[in-house]
Amino acid sequence: MFTLPNLITLLNLFFGCLAAISILNGAYYLGIIFSLAGGLADFLDGMVARLLNVQSNIGKELDSLADMVSFGFVPGIIFYKLISLNLPWPGLSVINWYAVPAFLITMFSALRLAKFNLDNRQTESFIGMPTPAATV
Hints:
Largest sheet: none
Number of strands: 0
């Protein structure tokens, strides 16, 4: 469970959390840096797992959970903040319909990751757009 690839995956999750906090606090450039760091960790975890031959089911699930935060939740937060910047009452946007399009990104990312985890055809390549690409 505590293999090097899984620790790198947890770094992806950590950077995703830092990105979300940064963006919510208006530190957009810092949020972008943390998102890029999460992307780098996401790239490295799979590569290291293959190099060390330590792929596992928990690693696959952990990777999807980390990706959900870094590449599903964070883009939704970015979109939400961009929409709410133009509202007359940004604090009230949570109860408004403006949050719906922003978090469609998050919801469809969750569906994409769940489908990926259950689809045996996607062991070597992706069918459709990978969730990290949606962040760009």
